[in-house]
Amino acid sequence: MKAIKIVAITGSTRKNSSNFKILKYISEHIKSDFEVDIFEDLDRIPHFNPDLDTENPPEEISLFRKKIIEADGIIICTPEYVFSLPGSLKNALEWCVSTTIFSNKKVGLITASASGEMGHEQLLLIMKTLEAKFDDNTQLLIQGIRGKIDAEGKIINEETEIALQNFIKNFENQFL
């Protein structure tokens, strides 16, 4: 059986962020028939420019879109910055609006931040607009993340570990 390809996008540009650690945790705990590629290059994506969007997009955009097209599913794990999505993640998603690459694509959405409520709400709205396929079982808000994960990426809060295990199981079930 061919591996199920997942692109995991971290919404933080900080190296070894809590969001990256969560995606590493997921990649280590997901079933072996899933192949997870963590995309950490949001900082390399140029500012959205509608004039370049469809005719001749920058190479970084073509490569980003290709990753999404070729993936069987997408997981996004993002912090909240100033009660919103990080600009770099929103920028990357804006490059996808004129396409159908997220239409009916199976996605898992996680916001892991201090509060995260408003950022998570915006992430859900944007992904609905892009026609991504998710439900209440494949989205998760983790508040107070810094106190729930250690420097090595170990989940140190039992409730959070259970929530992540349930998220992984529900995400996997989309592909059965």
Automatic annotation (TrEMBL):
<dbReference type="GO" id="GO:0005829">
    <property type="term" value="C:cytosol"/>
</dbReference>
<feature type="domain" description="NADPH-dependent FMN reductase-like">
    <location>
        <begin position="4"/>
        <end position="132"/>
    </location>
</feature>
<dbReference type="GO" id="GO:0010181">
    <property type="term" value="F:FMN binding"/>
</dbReference>
<dbReference type="GO" id="GO:0050625">
    <property type="term" value="F:2-hydroxy-1,4-benzoquinone reductase (NADH) activity"/>
</dbReference>
<dbReference type="Pfam" id="PF03358">
    <property type="entry name" value="FMN_red"/>
</dbReference>
<keyword id="KW-0560">Oxidoreductase</keyword>
<dbReference type="InterPro" id="IPR029039">
    <property type="entry name" value="Flavoprotein-like_sf"/>
</dbReference>
<protein>
    <submittedName>
        <fullName>2-hydroxy-1,4-benzoquinone reductase</fullName>
        <ecNumber>1.6.5.7</ecNumber>
    </submittedName>
</protein>
<dbReference type="InterPro" id="IPR005025">
    <property type="entry name" value="FMN_Rdtase-like_dom"/>
</dbReference>
<dbReference type="InterPro" id="IPR050712">
    <property type="entry name" value="NAD(P)H-dep_reductase"/>
</dbReference>
